[in-house]
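Could you show me some protein's one-letter sequence and the numbers that encode its backbone in two labelled lines?

___
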Amino acid sequence: MDPMTEIDWNDVWKDQIKRSREVSTARDCANIWESRKSALKFWNMSKENSHRVEETIAGTEITPESRVLDIGSGPGTLAIPFAKKVAHVTVVEPAEGMLSVLREKMAEEGVDNIEIVQKRWEDINVAEDLDPPYDVVIASFSLGMPDIRAAIEKMIEVASGHIYLYHFAGVTHWDRDCRDLWPKLHGKEYTPGPKADVLYNVLYQMGIYPNVRTFRLRHSQRFGSMEEAMEHFRYQYKITTAEQEAVVREHLARVLVEESGGFSLPASSIRVKIWWEKGSQEEGLAER
Protein backbone atom coordinates (compact mmCIF):
# COMPACT_ATOMS: atom_id res chain seq x y z
CA MET A 1 0.00 0.00 0.00
CA ASP A 2 1.27 3.45 -0.91
CA PRO A 3 0.54 5.64 2.14
CA MET A 4 0.68 8.77 0.01
CA THR A 5 -2.30 7.59 -2.05
CA GLU A 6 -4.19 5.49 0.48
CA ILE A 7 -4.11 7.99 3.35
CA ASP A 8 -5.88 11.33 3.09
CA TRP A 9 -3.48 13.43 5.14
CA ASN A 10 -5.91 16.33 5.37
CA ASP A 11 -8.34 13.96 7.11
CA VAL A 12 -5.50 13.01 9.47
CA TRP A 13 -4.99 16.71 10.25
CA LYS A 14 -8.72 17.24 10.81
CA ASP A 15 -8.94 14.25 13.12
CA GLN A 16 -5.93 15.25 15.21
CA ILE A 17 -7.19 18.83 15.54
CA LYS A 18 -10.63 17.57 16.58
CA ARG A 19 -9.31 15.11 19.17
CA SER A 20 -6.83 17.60 20.61
CA ARG A 21 -9.60 20.14 21.15
CA GLU A 22 -12.00 17.62 22.62
CA VAL A 23 -9.79 16.03 25.26
CA SER A 24 -6.86 18.30 25.88
CA THR A 25 -6.16 21.97 26.39
CA ALA A 26 -8.53 23.17 23.68
CA ARG A 27 -5.73 25.44 22.48
CA ASP A 28 -7.99 27.72 20.49
CA CYS A 29 -5.53 30.44 19.54
CA ALA A 30 -8.15 33.18 19.36
CA ASN A 31 -9.68 32.43 22.75
CA ILE A 32 -6.35 32.12 24.54
CA TRP A 33 -5.31 35.62 23.49
CA GLU A 34 -8.58 37.52 23.85
CA SER A 35 -7.32 39.28 26.98
CA ARG A 36 -5.03 42.27 26.48
CA LYS A 37 -2.92 41.17 29.45
CA SER A 38 -2.13 37.80 27.85
CA ALA A 39 -1.41 39.45 24.52
CA LEU A 40 0.98 41.94 26.10
CA LYS A 41 2.80 39.09 27.83
CA PHE A 42 3.15 37.40 24.44
CA TRP A 43 4.59 40.62 22.95
CA ASN A 44 7.11 41.00 25.79
CA MET A 45 8.17 37.34 25.52
CA SER A 46 8.69 37.79 21.78
CA LYS A 47 10.87 40.85 22.38
CA GLU A 48 13.01 38.85 24.80
CA ASN A 49 13.43 36.21 22.10
CA SER A 50 13.92 38.78 19.34
CA HIS A 51 16.55 36.68 17.55
CA ARG A 52 13.75 34.47 16.17
CA VAL A 53 11.93 37.49 14.77
CA GLU A 54 15.11 38.80 13.15
CA GLU A 55 15.87 35.40 11.60
CA THR A 56 12.31 35.04 10.31
CA ILE A 57 12.34 38.46 8.64
CA ALA A 58 15.79 37.85 7.16
CA GLY A 59 14.60 34.48 5.82
CA THR A 60 11.87 35.92 3.60
CA GLU A 61 12.08 37.20 0.03
CA ILE A 62 11.09 40.84 0.50
CA THR A 63 11.92 44.19 -1.11
CA PRO A 64 10.88 47.74 -0.15
CA GLU A 65 7.97 47.37 -2.60
CA SER A 66 6.68 44.07 -1.19
CA ARG A 67 3.16 43.47 0.05
CA VAL A 68 3.00 41.00 2.95
CA LEU A 69 0.07 39.00 4.34
CA ASP A 70 0.61 37.86 7.95
CA ILE A 71 -1.92 35.19 8.98
CA GLY A 72 -2.42 34.88 12.72
CA SER A 73 -0.30 37.95 13.35
CA GLY A 74 -0.78 38.14 17.11
CA PRO A 75 0.29 41.51 18.56
CA GLY A 76 2.47 42.34 15.55
CA THR A 77 5.58 40.39 16.46
CA LEU A 78 6.40 39.99 12.76
CA ALA A 79 4.02 42.50 11.21
CA ILE A 80 5.63 45.60 12.73
CA PRO A 81 9.22 44.66 11.75
CA PHE A 82 7.94 43.71 8.28
CA ALA A 83 6.12 47.06 7.98
CA LYS A 84 9.40 48.91 8.50
CA LYS A 85 10.94 47.12 5.51
CA VAL A 86 8.10 46.73 2.99
CA ALA A 87 5.39 48.84 1.35
CA HIS A 88 2.35 47.24 2.95
CA VAL A 89 1.34 44.56 5.47
CA THR A 90 -2.10 43.04 5.90
CA VAL A 91 -2.68 41.11 9.12
CA VAL A 92 -5.42 38.56 9.72
CA GLU A 93 -5.99 38.09 13.45
CA PRO A 94 -9.26 37.29 15.28
CA ALA A 95 -8.27 37.99 18.91
CA GLU A 96 -9.17 41.47 20.18
CA GLY A 97 -6.50 41.32 22.89
CA MET A 98 -3.82 40.77 20.27
CA LEU A 99 -5.14 43.55 18.07
CA SER A 100 -5.32 45.98 20.98
CA VAL A 101 -1.60 45.50 21.60
CA LEU A 102 -0.86 45.63 17.85
CA ARG A 103 -2.56 49.03 17.52
CA GLU A 104 -0.71 50.34 20.56
CA LYS A 105 2.68 49.17 19.28
CA MET A 106 1.98 50.55 15.79
CA ALA A 107 1.43 53.98 17.36
CA GLU A 108 4.50 53.68 19.58
CA GLU A 109 6.76 52.73 16.66
CA GLY A 110 5.25 55.10 14.09
CA VAL A 111 4.01 52.36 11.75
CA ASP A 112 0.99 53.25 9.59
CA ASN A 113 1.18 50.80 6.66
CA ILE A 114 -0.55 47.84 8.36
CA GLU A 115 -4.13 46.93 7.45
CA ILE A 116 -6.00 44.87 10.06
CA VAL A 117 -8.59 42.20 9.25
CA GLN A 118 -10.16 40.85 12.44
CA LYS A 119 -11.20 37.37 11.40
CA ARG A 120 -10.09 33.76 11.52
CA TRP A 121 -8.37 32.71 8.32
CA GLU A 122 -11.02 30.06 7.67
CA ASP A 123 -13.70 32.78 7.77
CA ILE A 124 -11.93 35.09 5.32
CA ASN A 125 -13.75 35.94 2.10
CA VAL A 126 -10.97 36.85 -0.31
CA ALA A 127 -13.08 39.18 -2.46
CA GLU A 128 -14.54 41.07 0.51
CA ASP A 129 -11.73 41.04 3.07
CA LEU A 130 -8.43 41.11 1.20
CA ASP A 131 -6.68 42.99 -1.59
CA PRO A 132 -4.43 40.42 -3.27
CA PRO A 133 -1.96 39.58 -4.60
CA TYR A 134 0.65 39.45 -1.84
CA ASP A 135 4.35 38.95 -2.56
CA VAL A 136 4.79 37.15 0.76
CA VAL A 137 2.21 35.10 2.66
CA ILE A 138 3.33 33.93 6.09
CA ALA A 139 1.67 31.95 8.88
CA SER A 140 4.03 31.64 11.84
CA PHE A 141 2.90 29.08 14.44
CA SER A 142 -0.71 29.96 13.69
CA LEU A 143 -1.87 26.87 11.80
CA GLY A 144 -4.79 25.95 14.03
CA MET A 145 -7.19 25.75 11.09
CA PRO A 146 -9.43 22.64 11.18
CA ASP A 147 -9.12 22.12 7.40
CA ILE A 148 -5.48 22.80 6.59
CA ARG A 149 -5.80 21.96 2.89
CA ALA A 150 -8.54 24.57 2.42
CA ALA A 151 -6.44 27.06 4.38
CA ILE A 152 -3.42 26.48 2.15
CA GLU A 153 -5.50 26.66 -1.03
CA LYS A 154 -6.69 30.11 0.09
CA MET A 155 -3.09 31.16 0.78
CA ILE A 156 -2.11 30.10 -2.73
CA GLU A 157 -5.10 31.98 -4.17
CA VAL A 158 -3.93 35.31 -2.73
CA ALA A 159 -0.16 34.82 -3.17
CA SER A 160 1.99 36.01 -6.05
CA GLY A 161 5.36 35.00 -4.58
CA HIS A 162 6.53 32.97 -1.61
CA ILE A 163 4.45 31.22 1.04
CA TYR A 164 6.07 30.54 4.43
CA LEU A 165 4.62 28.21 7.06
CA TYR A 166 6.14 27.73 10.50
CA HIS A 167 4.99 24.82 12.65
CA PHE A 168 6.08 22.42 15.38
CA ALA A 169 7.84 19.06 15.13
CA GLY A 170 8.12 16.19 17.59
CA VAL A 171 7.07 16.43 21.21
CA THR A 172 7.00 20.05 22.40
CA HIS A 173 7.73 21.06 25.99
CA TRP A 174 4.03 21.74 26.61
CA ASP A 175 3.15 18.33 25.15
CA ARG A 176 5.47 16.73 27.70
CA ASP A 177 4.00 18.73 30.58
CA CYS A 178 0.42 18.08 29.49
CA ARG A 179 1.01 14.35 29.04
CA ASP A 180 2.16 14.25 32.65
CA LEU A 181 -0.47 16.58 34.10
CA TRP A 182 -3.63 15.87 32.12
CA PRO A 183 -4.44 12.45 33.66
CA LYS A 184 -3.90 13.91 37.14
CA LEU A 185 -6.02 16.96 36.39
CA HIS A 186 -8.80 15.51 34.27
CA GLY A 187 -8.58 11.71 34.42
CA LYS A 188 -7.89 11.33 30.70
CA GLU A 189 -4.95 11.21 28.35
CA TYR A 190 -3.64 14.33 26.66
CA THR A 191 -3.89 14.44 22.87
CA PRO A 192 -1.49 16.77 21.03
CA GLY A 193 -2.39 18.57 17.82
CA PRO A 194 -0.96 17.68 14.39
CA LYS A 195 2.67 18.45 13.74
CA ALA A 196 4.83 19.25 10.73
CA ASP A 197 4.90 15.68 9.42
CA VAL A 198 1.17 15.78 8.70
CA LEU A 199 1.48 19.27 7.23
CA TYR A 200 4.24 18.18 4.85
CA ASN A 201 2.22 15.19 3.68
CA VAL A 202 -0.83 17.39 3.03
CA LEU A 203 1.34 19.64 0.86
CA TYR A 204 2.84 16.64 -0.93
CA GLN A 205 -0.62 15.32 -1.81
CA MET A 206 -1.44 18.77 -3.17
CA GLY A 207 1.50 18.50 -5.56
CA ILE A 208 3.60 20.96 -3.55
CA TYR A 209 7.18 19.87 -2.78
CA PRO A 210 8.45 22.60 -0.49
CA ASN A 211 11.73 23.55 1.08
CA VAL A 212 12.02 22.40 4.70
CA ARG A 213 14.35 23.65 7.43
CA THR A 214 14.25 22.22 10.92
CA PHE A 215 15.68 24.13 13.87
CA ARG A 216 15.63 24.18 17.66
CA LEU A 217 14.17 27.24 19.32
CA ARG A 218 15.19 28.05 22.89
CA HIS A 219 12.98 30.51 24.69
CA SER A 220 11.63 31.40 28.10
CA GLN A 221 8.51 32.79 29.72
CA ARG A 222 8.91 35.19 32.63
CA PHE A 223 6.56 35.73 35.56
CA GLY A 224 6.76 38.29 38.34
CA SER A 225 5.44 35.85 40.92
CA MET A 226 4.08 32.35 41.40
CA GLU A 227 0.57 33.84 41.39
CA GLU A 228 1.19 35.41 37.98
CA ALA A 229 2.37 32.04 36.69
CA MET A 230 -0.70 30.33 38.14
CA GLU A 231 -2.97 32.89 36.49
CA HIS A 232 -1.28 32.19 33.15
CA PHE A 233 -1.58 28.40 33.40
CA ARG A 234 -5.05 28.33 34.97
CA TYR A 235 -6.68 28.65 31.55
CA GLN A 236 -4.20 26.42 29.75
CA TYR A 237 -4.74 23.56 32.17
CA LYS A 238 -8.46 24.21 32.66
CA ILE A 239 -8.16 24.54 36.43
CA THR A 240 -11.54 24.68 38.18
CA THR A 241 -10.92 23.00 41.56
CA ALA A 242 -8.58 23.41 44.53
CA GLU A 243 -7.22 19.90 43.90
CA GLN A 244 -6.27 20.78 40.34
CA GLU A 245 -4.65 24.00 41.49
CA ALA A 246 -2.53 22.08 43.99
CA VAL A 247 -1.31 19.72 41.24
CA VAL A 248 -0.29 22.63 39.00
CA ARG A 249 1.37 24.55 41.85
CA GLU A 250 3.47 21.50 42.66
CA HIS A 251 4.39 21.16 38.98
CA LEU A 252 5.36 24.84 38.66
CA ALA A 253 7.44 24.63 41.84
CA ARG A 254 9.51 21.95 40.06
CA VAL A 255 9.92 23.57 36.65
CA LEU A 256 10.08 27.33 37.31
CA VAL A 257 13.48 28.90 37.90
CA GLU A 258 13.82 31.81 40.35
CA GLU A 259 15.33 34.76 38.53
CA SER A 260 15.63 38.51 39.20
CA GLY A 261 12.90 38.64 41.80
CA GLY A 262 10.55 36.51 39.73
CA PHE A 263 10.45 33.25 37.84
CA SER A 264 11.24 32.00 34.37
CA LEU A 265 10.22 28.88 32.49
CA PRO A 266 13.10 27.93 30.18
CA ALA A 267 12.12 25.69 27.29
CA SER A 268 13.17 24.52 23.88
CA SER A 269 11.34 22.80 21.07
CA ILE A 270 11.90 21.72 17.49
CA ARG A 271 10.36 24.01 14.90
CA VAL A 272 10.03 23.67 11.13
CA LYS A 273 10.05 26.30 8.41
CA ILE A 274 8.27 25.13 5.25
CA TRP A 275 8.26 27.37 2.20
CA TRP A 276 7.82 27.44 -1.55
CA GLU A 277 7.25 29.89 -4.39
CA LYS A 278 3.84 29.96 -5.99
CA GLY A 279 3.99 28.35 -9.40
CA SER A 280 6.98 26.14 -8.60
CA GLN A 281 4.71 23.39 -7.28
CA GLU A 282 3.01 22.83 -10.66
CA GLU A 283 6.16 21.18 -11.98
CA GLY A 284 7.21 19.84 -8.59
CA LEU A 285 10.23 22.12 -8.68
CA ALA A 286 10.53 23.61 -5.19
CA GLU A 287 13.10 26.38 -4.97
CA ARG A 288 16.57 25.15 -4.09
Observations:
- DSSP finds 13 helices and eight strands in the chain.
